[in-house]
Amino acid sequence: MRDQPETPVTTVRTPPPHGAPSPPAPTPPSTPARRTTLPAPPEPGPVPPGPSAGSPAPRPLGEPRVWPRSFRDRLTTPLPGVRGLARLAREGAFRPGPDGLRGIPDLPYRPAPLPAVAPGAVCVTWAGHASWVIRTGGLTVLTDPVWSRRILGTPARMTPPGVRWEELPPVDAVVISHNHYDHLDAPTLRRLPRDTALFVPAGLARWCRRRGFRRVTELDWWESAELGGVRFDFVPAHHWSRRTLLDTCRTLWGGWVLTDRAGTGRTVYFAGDTGYGHWFGEIGRRHPGIDLALLPIGAYAPRWWLRDVHADPEEAVRACRDLGARRMAPMHWAAFVLSAEPVMEPLHRVRAAWARTGLPREDLWDLPVGASRTLAPAPDADTGGGGRGRLPSAAREAP
Fold first, then answer.
1. Are residues 179 and 251 in contact, defined by beta-carbon separation less than 8 angstroms?
2. Is the pLDDT of residue 54 over 80?
3. Cα dihedral sign for 28, 33, 39, 43?
4. Partners of 267 in the beta sheet?
5. If pLDDT is split at 50, 70 and 90, which confidence band does 380 have?
6. Sheet arrangement for strand 372-375
7. What is the per-residue pLDDT for 264?
8. Could you write out the DSSP letters of every residue in 20-38?
9. Dihedral (C-alpha) 352, 358, 361, 365: value to the nearest 10 degrees?
10. What is the Cα–Cα distance from 325 to 139, expressed in whole angstroms?
11. Scanning 29, 171, 352, 358, which has its CA 20 to 30 A from the CA of 220?
């Protein structure tokens, strides 16, 4: 939850975070080169749906792992000091003014029953904020589920969850992007059966197991695991983590790429919480042909305070293009008041930014809270290619 005053960021740049490519070590000049005869490379064969060939094999589900004490070396920018805190307190720009709050009655909220999903199709339903119900590969997956009326340090929700908890189908898996309170909500997780499969960032399994969850898989950046034919890849984000005053960056943060490996290869990218930066291009290179990107567009003002950890609407559209994603669905707005921008501004700005790109309007899935959208099973013409090939709009998805 990046809006709390004790956790700002600065815009001072640091060396590349852990995980970025490092220059190769030079070969000592005294070492003579050895000539070897290499076998001819094998003939290329078909590549299965999902990440490019050469990706690490999926990790075992639920394996115990040991992690470093801190992930501060993964920060894109350092966390702030006293000057940033003093400026925020002096300006007092924590929440929108009265004019910005007048848009609350206009927030789009249209809950509806979850539609049926055909084999090979993918259906996403926006429950609000960063919470989605994703049905893919025969699984029902929740992202960062927050069904609570309020979270620590914020006013009550502006819109209720778009799906009543009692109306959810059985939940097969949950993905968590990081441990901030508006993304990791203990009261919501307590509603789940303890044998629900949880996929979490490195270092967070202990928190989940202390609450009785028995099937917890924690991953580092660029690692993956599989459940029921769906591959869960954990990818980097420009963010950070903290849940108490004493655990800053003790657990990792990131996003998830979900791929229906057993079906037609439809791929959904869930960004979690992130600023804009170089990771989007790298994710797109490693996961070409993303069908749908769920990207945050809210909680971005004041910009000097939040730019490094929360993308604004224009940056979210740019991130979608960096990813090579075919479609974008905005999120991380319209539920909680976390920052100072007017509550309806993210929607207006993302629509304008999308229009300026010249991309098809139907590929911006600006859903109301509670609404669903379905991707039909992917025909051969809609696979691979990093998002360059496009089907006629009538064949791409059903509303």
1. yes
2. no
3. positive
4. 259
5. low
6. 215-219, 197-201, 173-175, 139-143, 131-136, 122-128, 372-375, 397-398
7. 81
8. S--PPPPPPTTSPPPP-PP
9. -70
10. 22
11. 171
Nearest residue to 298 (alpha-carbon basis) of 148, 162, 182: 182
Q: Is residue 1 part of a domain?
A: no
Instruction: Tally the C-alpha atoms within 13 A of residue 298's C-alpha that lie toward its C-beta.
Output: 29
With CA atoms as reference, report the closest residue to 122 among 109, 144, 141, 147: 141
Mean pLDDT confidence for 58-69: 97
In this predicted structure, what is the pLDDT of residue 334? 98
From 349, 345, 344, 282, select the one nearest 315 (Cα to Cα).
349
CATH number of the structural domain spanning residue 367: 3.60.15.10
Helix H or strand E encompassing 131: strand 131-136
Amino acid at 227: L
Least confident piece of the model among 34-48, 120-134, 158-172, 282-296: 34-48
With respect to residue 57, please indicate whether it lies within any of the assigned structural domains.
no
For residues 2 and 282, give the distance between their C-alpha atoms in angstroms, rounded to a whole number: 24
296 lies in some domain: yes
For residues 15 and 22, what is the distance between their CA atoms, to the nearest angstrom?
A: 11
Closest to 219 measured CA to CA, from 244, 250, 246, 198: 198
pTM over 0.70? The answer is: yes
Q: Is 344 exposed, middle or buried (0-12, 13-18, 19+ CB in 10 A)?
A: buried
Q: Under DSSP, is residue 46 helix (H, G, I), strand (E, B) or coil?
A: coil
The tally of domains found in the chain comes to: 1
Average pLDDT, the chain: 85
Label residue 354 by pLDDT band (50, 70, 90).
very high
Residue with tokens 């029902």: 140
Domain carrying residue 232: 108-378
Tokens representing 361? 């309007």
Mean of the pLDDT values across residues 116-122? Answer: 94
Per DSSP, the three-state class of 167 is helix
Residue 169 lies in a domain: yes
Spatial distance between the Cα atoms of 173 and 59, rounded to a whole number of angstroms: 16
Q: Which helix (H) or strand (E) holds 82?
A: helix 82-91
Residue 215: HSE in the Cβ half-sphere, 13 Å Cα cutoff: 15
